[in-house]
Amino acid sequence: MPRMRLKIRRPKTVLAVLCLVALPIVLFVINGTLLSYGQRPLLGTTTHAAAPLADEAAPVIVKVLSYNIAKGFVHQGGLCFADRQVVAARMERIAALINAEQPDMVFLSEAVLECGPCPVNQVTMLAQATGMHAWAFGENFNIGVPGYRMVGGNAIFSRWPLEAVGNPSLAGRRPFYITRNNRRLLWCAVHLAGRWVLLASVHNDSFNPANNLIQTRELLDFAPHEEALIAGDFNAQPHEPSMTLLRDSGRFAGMFDGALTFPSDEPRQRIDFILAPARWELLEDRVLDSDASDHRPVVAVFRIPP
């Protein structure tokens, strides 16, 4: 009677299979932790020269545009992404809108710096296309593997040089693999009218008003004795506690109500704002009619006294 031979799986084969399965997970964790930008803001320049500084003895007029660009609608849900040409065309629309206004500074929420499935760097593309000299980016989320990931957050463009200050995490932040509603606050500084002014690009909690209020307090506490220009998607309406807190602080000039900004097709809420240091004089505040994003952009013009 012939002997029966049992086929035993070799340990090396099992180990190779385990490594193959574990490798994507390891790379995913490395990308989200060791290779993320985290609380470190990025800073760069375009090919455009910096605008000359204004005479410190005269009033300075500054025009600011704030826009939540909704990631250029690059993410279609799950593992589906828009075509590169479609997203690039949307960025061209947004650039044309900005160029029509000729702002001195732009504050963006929901901008995408990297996207492996759709490689359009929305930050540098828009900064270059709108004639800005400097750009800054603060990461809110980073998900994927090295070389093939999606990185999104807040951005600031300026015709003048920028200094990076920080990108601190805000209350309610969760682990890196949870991208929804994870927030940081991008801080930069610019030299205007003979003094330094802090700049903050804002995108506060979208779902929890109580946490939104905590994040607004963190914004106020970051530099309580410095002048700050803050703009973005506050996710709070004029009558809600977060905006009441900012208004009652006495630290800001600007429109705390006005035309509605969200959603862009039939706006029902004003949740996007541009607020400047209290000594600045608000000359104009407008909301632009555009469906390039799910928010409408806000434009404000201020006079800085000498």
Task: Note the main attributes of this structure.
alpha+beta; 33% strand; seven-stranded mixed beta sheet; globular; 306 residues; six-stranded mixed beta sheet
Distance between the termini: 106 Å
- Main sheet overview: 7 strands, mixed
Kindly provide the radius of gyration, computed on alpha-carbon positions and rounded to a whole number of angstroms: 23 Å
Poorly predicted runs:
none
Mean pLDDT: 94
The rough form would be described as: globular
Order of helices and strands: HEEEEHEHEEEEEHEHEEEE
DSSP helix fraction: 10-25%
The total beta strand count reads 15
Main structural class: alpha+beta
Tell me the fraction of residues in β-strands, as a range. Answer: 25-35%
The number of helical elements comes to 5
Quaternary status of these chains? Answer: single chain
What is the strand arrangement across the widest sheet? 1-6-7-5-2-15-14
